[in-house]
Amino acid sequence: MTQAEKTTTVLLVGVGGQGTILAGDLLAKTAAVSGYDVKISEIHGMSQRGGSVSTVVRFGRDVASMICDEGCADVIVSFEAIEALRARQFLATDGGRLFVNDEVIEPVSVAIGTGSMPTDIDGALAQLDAVKVPAGRIAREAGSPKSTNVVLMGALSTALPFAADTWREVIAKRVPPRTVDANLTAFDAGRGCVA
Amino acid sequence: MQKLLSGNEAIAQGAWEAGVRVGVGYPGTPSTETLENLSTYDDVYCEWSPNEKVALEVALGSAMGGARSLATMKHVGVNVAADPLLSACNTGVNAGLVILAADDPSMFSSQNEQDSRNYAAFARIPMLEPADSAEAHEFVQRAFEISEDFDTPVMIRESMRIAHTKSLVDCADERADVELRDFTPDASKYVMMPAYARGRRQAVIERTGKLIEFAEETDLNRIEMRDSSVGIIASGAVYQHVREALPQASTFKLGLSWPLPPAKLKQFAEAVDHLYVVEEACDYFAERVHALGIATEQPPVCPLPEAGELTPALIKKSFGVALPQGHPPCDDLPPRPPSLCAGCPHRLVFTVLRDMKAIVSGDIGCYTLGATAPLSAVHSTIDMGASLSVAHGLELADVPARNKRPVVGVIGDSTFAHSGITSLLGTIYNAGAGTLCILDNRTTAMTGCQGNPCNGITLHEQVRGANPLAVRDGKRLDIEALCLALGADEAESVDAQDYAAVKDALKGATAANDKLSVLVFHSPCRLIDRSRDGVAVVGECRACGKCVRIGCPVIGTDEHGHAVIDPVQCIGCGQCIQVCPFGCISKEGE
C-alpha cells in the first residue's frame, strides 16, 4: 500500500469548550481540498459540558470507519495535558506523534477529592516523545486568545502532507472575517514552533 | 458541488432536494441538527413540536394533505411517537412521509440503546440505513419515492456515528419540482375505526409482499464479493467497521433493513463458505436471517459484545485479526465527566436538595447531571416527564413518611412542555401531594439551545438568531398560570440564582405534606446569557469545602484544601459567594 492509499488517523482530544470541533473541521476541510477522502467524527450532547472530548479525523484514498481504535492514531493533538495522557493508548507505537498544549486544566474531581492529579505529567509526556506547544501563550501573543486551537493546527500541519497555503485558505474561509489575520498569524506561529 | 456534511446535514440537504415542504421534530441527540439545517431553507416550513408524538402527527397530517414531509427524532423519541406510528403504518400516506430515527449505540447522550430497526419491523414500514453522509443524502430522496410508490411511511435510521460523522457528499443543489398532491377524503383509508382498520391491515399485508419483491431487486442492498471464504451481513456504520477490520471479506450490505430480501440473502449465503452477521447492540438481523432458514456462524475467536457500539478493533478481535500494540492506558488520571457549567442556574437547586436530603426523581436534560458528584442529588431518571409521575408513585409507596425525607420531582422547562404537563395533571387529579420543581432556564439546553413553548422561540426564529431573552411575556408559556389552571395548590416563582430564596422555597414547600406545591425556578441558561459580572476571589479561606461541594468547574483547591477560583473561567455568578458560610469569597474589587 502506498502512502497515499493508507488512511491516516488524527485524534484531537481536550476539554469541552476548547474548540476541538472547529479544529477538526479545519483539518478535515484541508484534507478534502487537498483531494483526499475524509471522515470526521464528533461527540455531542451529554458528552460535552466540560467533560473530556474527542474528535477523530481520518483521511486517505477511501476511508471506511470513522473510529480511532487503540494504537491506531498516527497523530494525537491534545488541547490539554491530562487529556493527552488519557488518550495515550490510542497513539500508534510505531511512529505515532503527539502534540500537546502545555496547559493543565484541573478536573472538578480533584477539587472534590474523587480524583488526584498525576504525579509527573511532564515525565509521562516525555516518554511519549510529546511535542509541547505553548499554544495559549502563542495565541495571546497573536492577539487572539481564542485561537489556541488554530495554533495547535499550525503545529499539527508540520506532520501532515498538506500545503501550508491550503491550510491558510481553509482557515481564512472558516473563521469569523475580522479574526482572519489573527488566526493566520496564530497558525504560522504554531507551525513555526515545531522545529 | 462537493460538500463535507454530517449525516444530519446530508439528510436535510437531500430532503430539500427531494422537494420536502414540511419538517417537524423534537430536539434529541443525535438527531437535532437535521431539522435545524432544513429550517435554513426558506422554501421549507419547519417547526419544533412539544414532543415527538405531536411531531409525527403533524407530519402525517401534512403528508396526508399532499406535502412531502419529514419528521425527526432520537431513538427514544420514537417511543413517544409510537402511537401515531403504529396507525400511520396502516393509513399509509398521500405525499411522501419520512421519519428519521437517530439511534445512540453506547448511549453517548441517551438513557438506553434501543434499536429503531425493531420499530420498522413492528410497524411493517420500510427502513433505510445509510452508511455515510453520501448515502444519507441519497437515501432520504429514495425514501420519499418509496413512501409514495408503496403508500407507506418510511423510516431512516442513523446511528450516532452516521449522524455526527462528516464525510464528502456530491450535492446536485437543485430542488426537485414536486407538486402538492390533492387531499381526497377517504374514510376507509384515514379513519382507523375497527371496520376500516381491518381493511387497512389487509392492505399492509399486500404492501409487505410488494416490498419484499422490491427488497430483492433494489440496489439499496448490495452483494460485494471479495474473498468467498468469509461473508458478512452488515449495515450502516457497522458496515464501515467491517470494511476496515476485514477488508478481504465479502459483504452483504443492507441499505434496506426492513423488509429483508430472503432470496438475495440465500444467494449470498450459498456463495460464501462461512457466513456471519455483524451488528451492534441488538440481534435484529441475526434473528431474522435465522428465521429465513439461513445458518450463520459465531465469529471464530469470540462472540461480538452484546451491548455497546462496535469498533473495527472489536471485530478484529472476534475474527482473530492481530491488533496493534498500543501504549498501556494511564490508570491514575482524575476523571473528567461532564458537569453543570459555571453559573448554571440548576446548581443551587440541587445543592439545597442534596443538603436537605430530599429524595429526588429527576428527568431528561442537562439537570440529569445533578446526579453526579459532588451534587449527587438525583435518585431516578427514567424518561421524558417521569420526574413528576415517579414522585407521585414514591408518595403512594409512602416513601416520604417511611424515610422521613421529602420527595421532590425535578424537571426542566422543555421537558415539562414535552410530557410533564400530563404527569402533573395526573397527580393533581388524584389529589396527590408533594413538591415539583420546574427549572426554567429559557431554552432546551442539552441539545444545543433550541426553542420550545416555554421560551416562545420557534425553530424558524431560532435558526435566524432570535434571542430567547428578548421574547415578550405573552408569547411564552406562563408556567405558573398553567400549573394553577391545572389545579396545583400553589405555583411559586423563585430566582434560581438566589441561594436564600431557593432554600426558603424548598423548605417551605416540602414542610407541607398535604398539598401539591409547584416551584418554578427562573434564570437563563449560561449558554444563552453569556454576560459576565466580574470575578469571584477567595479571601481568608477556612477550607470548609462548602463552595467546592456545589460542583462548579472553576473552583478547585490548593494543597491546604483552600478554595482556588480560576479567574479566566469564572463568570461572576456569585453562587460560591452565597454558599460560603464565612463570607470569605467576594467579587474582585468589592
Explain this structure.
The complex is a heterodimer of chains A (195) and B (590). Chain A has 195 residues and is an alpha/beta fold. Chain A is 37% helix and 18% strand. The mean pLDDT of chain A is 91. Chain B has 590 residues and is α/β, with parallel strands linked by helices. Chain B is built from 22 helices and 22 strands. In chain B, strand 2, helix 2 and strand 3 form a beta-alpha-beta unit. The model of chain B has no long low-confidence stretch (mean pLDDT 96). Classes of the chains: A alpha/beta (195), B alpha/beta (590). At the A-B interface, helix 1, strand 2, helix 2 and helix 3 of A face strand 8, helix 11 and strand 20 of B. Strand 2 of chain A pairs antiparallel with strand 8 of chain B, so a sheet runs across the interface.
The CATH class designation of the largest domain in chain B is: Alpha Beta
Count of distinct strands of chain A: 6
Q: What structural category arises from helix and sheet content of chain B?
A: alpha/beta
General shape of chain B: globular
Instruction: Please describe the biggest sheet of chain B, giving its number of strands, its sense, and whether it closes into a barrel.
Output: 7 strands, mixed
Task: Write down the CATH topology of the largest domain in chain B.
Answer: Rossmann fold
> Which chain pair has the greatest contact?
A-B, 57 and 59 residues
Q: Evaluate the radius of gyration of chain A.
A: 16 Å
Q: How does CATH name the architecture of the largest domain in chain B?
A: 3-Layer(aba) Sandwich
CATH homolog superfamily of the largest domain in chain B: Thiamin diphosphate (ThDP)-binding fold, Pyr/PP domains
Strand content of chain B: 15-25%
Summed over residues and divided by their number, the pLDDT of chain A gives a mean of 91
- Which spans of chain B have pLDDT < 50 for at least 5 consecutive residues? none
Q: What summary fits the major beta sheet of chain A?
A: 6 strands, mixed
CATH topology of chain A: Pyruvate-ferredoxin Oxidoreductase, domain 3
Distance between the termini of chain B: 57 Å
- Broad CATH class of chain A: Alpha Beta
Shape of chain A: globular
What is the beta-strand fraction of chain A? 15-25%
